[in-house]
Amino acid sequence: MLRFIQEHHLVSGGEKLLVAVSGGPDSVCLLHILDKLQKELTIRLYVAHLNHQLRGAESEADAGYVSDLAHQLGIPAIIDRRDVKGHQAQQHLSLEEAAREVRYSFLAQVARSIGADRVAVGHTMDDHIETILMHLIRGTGTRGLRGLQPITVWQSGSNSLTIVRPLLAVSHQETEDYCHHHQLMPRLDVSNLSLSPLRNRIRHQLLPLLESYNPRVAEALLRTGRITSDDIDFLDKEIVRLWDEIAQEQERAIFLDRERFDQLPSALQRYLLRASAEKLLGSAKDIETRHIEAMMSALNKPAGKKLNLPGGIIFSIEYNKYLISRDPAALSPFPILRDEFQLKIPGETLLPGWRIEATIVSKEQMSEEDKDFIAYFDLDKTGDKLLVRSRQPGDRFQPLGMSQPKKVNEFMIDAKIPNAWRQQTPIVCSPQQILWVVGWRIDDRAKITDNTNQILCLKFQRS
Question: Would you say residue 209 lies in a domain?
Fold first, then answer.
């Protein structure tokens, strides 16, 4: 175990290390060995035990055993109880998921209170093998085949915790033998014998069955985990190298350059999509393989295609980019228009998010400055009774340079206006017609000609 700790840099000298102790042979063995290694590793140990209140007097006896063991070893212990079943009902989780969330939340709070930056847990080689099989049964991607890692970060909301697993190179049988040899008398959790949880069925039924086909199946699974882990390490480095070339980050969104992304191998595409979701959510624990594959399948769909993903994020296809965001509409350069607004001509009109200036100018005063948000019209053709509103069903106008009217929606598609922006794009109208899809095109019938006497200049500015 010492070699494993040193090889994977699981602890740093001079720091506090919290040890999660359930009272079973794995965690008791872990604590006992770490106690022997305290001086060599120059660490200070603390014990944490949570009573899940699921087994009545047995749970109370577990807490008492851990308290006594910590006292015998002279290690400070923090022992508490939490209502796991209440959390399960409130969050609509399985009992195993609820217990895990409550337990790690407790450990994160304890670590923070004592000034420790990581917690050691008693997962063994057996847990590692079972995890690989459990992920495989549930339809994992490549990452799931790694199983348990020596160091991982657990995160839920504002809680985060670095978890280290010093026993991953040790079997459960070895921890039991160790406890027996040192007369530690660990507790037996009878719920581990139940066939209700998937992990227990894998342990007691599936693994023995697989061993009847291949007596060395455990070794094969461990080898698969090692190879997969090496492959993932390489892919992670490639993602770091490619990130700045392909991805652009904003506060609530990540843009992926569509042309460059589409040139990547599928393996890197999957990892970029996962990395993007992870950056937005803070963790990819809710992003499953099926979500990644759904995004991969959507890559060939036309612009405007959207997928709703866990954590409230949306994957959308745009014309020249892929967008992963919590709120694509919030990325529009245009504020939401919830009403119609009459323009003061000439003069200044203020409306939510916009300041609109209307002036009468000569041809010599016309400017190319910020041409997307400045437009010039023949005032005799537009009149001075103009309003600004959002797009409405059935809207049509005759885009500059065209001889026939066109639906505004079709124009927006052809102009490659992102779908999330279309309803927020301002439309300038007269009583007779649409005059301007702001930011893109004016109506051909209101354009300036040699016969124009008065020129109306409209200038939109964000307020």
Answer: yes
Q: What is the CATH number of the domain that holds 418?
A: 3.50.40.10
Instruction: Domain count for the chain, please give it.
Output: 3
Percent helix / strand / coil, the chain, rounded to 5: 45, 20, 35
d(CA 19, CA 445): 77
Average pLDDT of the residues of the chain? 90
316/360 same-domain check: no
pTM score, whole prediction: 0.71
Residues 79, 51: contact at Cβ < 8 Å? yes
At 150-200, the pLDDT tens digits run 999 888 767 788 999 999 999 999 999 999 999 999 998 777 777 888 889
Distance CA 60, CA 69 (A): 14
- The structure tokens listed for 297 are 């399948």
- Count other Cβ atoms within 10 Å, centred on residue 390: 17
Q: What angle do CA 270, 272, 274 make, to 5 degrees?
A: 70
Helix (H, G, I), strand (E, B) or coil at 201: helix
Q: What is the CATH number of the domain that holds 256?
A: 3.30.465.60
CB atoms within 10 A of CB 447: 17
The token pair at 100 is 């895990």
Strand partners for 356: 349, 460
